[in-house]
Structure formats: structure tokens, C-alpha cells
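Usage

Read records sequentially. Each one opens with the input sequence:
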Amino acid sequence: MRTVIRRGSVRGGLLAAVVAGSLLLGATGCGEDGNKDGVPKDYKVVSGTQLCGGDAMSADAAKALKLITGSSRFEASAKKYTVAQAAADFVKAFWDPKVYRGDACRVYMPIGTPDFQLRITWRRAHSAPSGNPAQKFTVLKMSEETLAAADMAYVQFACKSDKLADPLGPAHIVIGVERWGMPKPPEGDIKALKNAYATVAHSFSLAMAKELRCEKNGGLPAKPVLIPA
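and closes with the structure output:
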């Protein structure tokens, strides 16, 4: 058997050594913080709409996550991974030139299933988008710029808010959704995967814009627009 050790979302640290394909049968290690299978007592498996604090993933995003991962169940997010915390971190970093990006949320498959990790990040951009994206990206007609690939997507939106008062103009925020640790190119319907990643990125972006109190939700539509520019 092959032992897979990965960084899980529970407590934001190393979760467990998992025997792949065994669904934890034969796993060892029982302590005060876990059961006989070595799983922490507070470990939970949740639906897509409950990830990242419970207000970041729409029903459409949950369906997109199922297309991306093949599952509708995931490890519960660590307490620090919420839209509210990501927005607070962005506000704190807004005037700090040394900090321009941060972790917003991580999505993991449950213990005992194939390893799959998505990372959602925020980044501060200095201006509206310019230049041409890499060839692997499809540009979608959504917000300032939306770039979608088969293993990642980025949504950039402009935010005018009392939380980010800047005489030079609106803040430009980029939300990224990326698959990590992928050993080979993505397989399947590439267009469908691009749309799925863009849908997840849109959902978190919209939640972030609302949390930051951006005017008109940063120009983001209520539903993802998946039409190529």
C-alpha cells in the first residue's frame, strides 16, 4: 500500500497519514484528540456550499466544484478560511507595499479519497488589466477581467469602498482559484473545466466584494458570465 501524507484543512496543519484506497482501514494511532482511526474528533465532511465559512460558494459554485473534483463532499474548511477573514486581511494589507497577496481558502477532498487540492487566493493589482494573457487562458466577459484555464481561473474586479478609501481611484482585486499538486495535465472537457473554475472564482469574488462593501458589488454580476470576450 502507498501512504499519502498531505496538509489538510482541519486546524490548518498536517492532518494525517492516510492509506490510500483503504478508507482508513488499518490506520493506527489513537489519542486524546482523535478516534481509533487517528482522525481528529472535530473532523467534518461538508457540502460545497458550506466551504470557506459557508457564504463563499453558491449553489452554482458547488456544482462546479463537483465537476472539477468529481465529488460533492469535502473536508470542512479551517476556521481561518472565511470571506470575512480574507477581506480583513486585504484591508490590512491595502496600504502595505510589502504585502500584496494572501490565502483566502483551501479546498480538500475527504480523508480516504484521492488527493485533490484547490487554493483560493486574493491579490492586489496596481491597475486595470493590460497586455495579453497566456495562450492557455480564455478571456471571459466578466468584470474587469476573467481568465479561465482547465486548472485555474482568475477574476479581477475594481472596488470603491469606504473600507478602501483611496484618492487615486478604486482598489483592483484579483481572486484566483488554482489546482495544486497536479502531476499531469487536466483531463476531460476542457471548456467545461474552464467554465467550472471561472464559476468558483466568480462566487468567491462576489462574496469578497460584498464583504468589502464595494459599490455595485465591484461590477460583478449576480451569476457568472461564461461568454468568451
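Summary fields computed downstream for this record:
- The longest helix spans residues 190-211.
- The two ends are 48 Å apart (CA to CA).
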